[in-house]
Amino acid sequence: MLVPLLVVATLVAQTDQSPPAPPECTADIRWVNDTQLNVNRATGRMLTILTAVSGPNSACLPAKLILAASYFDQRDDVVCSGIVELSPPVTTNLQYTNIEIRPATIYEFARWRNGPQVTALQWSRVSCLTPDGQSEVQPDELDRARSLRLHATVLPAQNGVATVDVRLLLQP
Length: 172
Fold this sequence. Notes:
By secondary structure, the chain is mainly beta. The chain contains two helices and ten strands; from the N terminus they run H-E-E-E-E-E-E-E-E-H-E-E. The chain has helices at about 1-15, 115-120, and strands at about 25-30, 35-40, 45-55, 65-70, 80-85, 90, 95-100, 110, 145-155, 160-170.
């Protein structure tokens, strides 16, 4: 009878050695601008994102900021959607990130204005896929778009997520 008790005690001791759970991270994200804006499609528009990330001993930093874009036509049907090839890091618990958007072009779509000098000068493209996800749209196909939704998501280093979007009404 004594032998089975020792086996159980050994198994319990082994399961207690599992790695600790990652710290709980919380995240919030907001557009500082209004959530619906009229934008001239041919010119750039500055947008500001406020991110807040918390957790014990900054274990949740750096976080990652991801931008996605969806273009809609006059009937609110999707023209294309995709991920912006710009991912500014979130390195402080509370951070403002200034993004300049050019809605009329997918090749020079966004740039991080208050980032490092080299980054602030570089434009990033948006890989805008057709609704069936089979191919990228051609730049002239954006002419039929009447609005653009820009989604921003913050992903803390360990766990957690927060997303927000802004609607840009595209003016000629």
